[in-house]
Amino acid sequence: xxPELRKLIEVQEVDKAILEINQALDxxxxxxxxxAAALEAxxxxxxxxxxxxxGLKKQRQEVEAEMADMEAGIKKxxxxxxxxxxxxxxxAMLKEIAFKEDQRDQRETKILELMxxxxxxxxxxxxxxxxxxxQEAAMARLKxxxxxxxxxxxxxxxxLEEKKKKLRKGLPxxxxxxxxxxxxxxxxxxxxxxxxxxxxxxxxNILPQQFIxxxxxxxxxxxxxxxxxxxxxEEVEEEASGQTGSRxxxxxxx
Length: 254
Prior knowledge:
about 250 residues, mainly alpha, Helix Hairpins, 4-stranded mixed beta sheet, 5 helices, 4 strands, about 75% helix, about 5% strand
């Protein structure tokens, strides 16, 4: 294998590691934003319930004031009743008092209904208070965890960027330009292995003569289908296992 291609394979590995770190760094703010949105939703619900509770309290006060006025009116009517001499007026006053008492009873029923609604709102607020505490604690934990993760990722990124810089030194500018061009268009993979005549980048067969030339390692071959730079997988695996020089004769794909 040509040495510049071997070095370019290492560059690609570093580029992929850098991409993963950058994706993780991009994800961290999104995770925090999701937690913040959940917290804000709870806060808005809590504020809405508080507003509803205040509305119920105001209604109760108004109904209680109306009921107090009715009680006072009923008391006055009963006092007047003692002064009436006419039977017809007496019956009419009794009817008026009965009507006022009915109205008062309706107000009393309304107050009981409002008290029940207020109790439900208070229970809901208590539940929301607990959820808010838990959400705030979860967000604080996430923020702390993310700060630690981001610090580690940034440290790793710095190391990888330095390694990439060193690896790229000495590589032909035209080769680097071709590598970057392909990488940007092939989802971060500009170099692909070939196994038994098949490009593992696009899973298409390369030409038999290209496979033979690839095994010779005298030139840099590109896949005729996906345009990725190619290397012979078996050669890399043999070198990794310490079997250099035992590949046998060159052959075309089976």
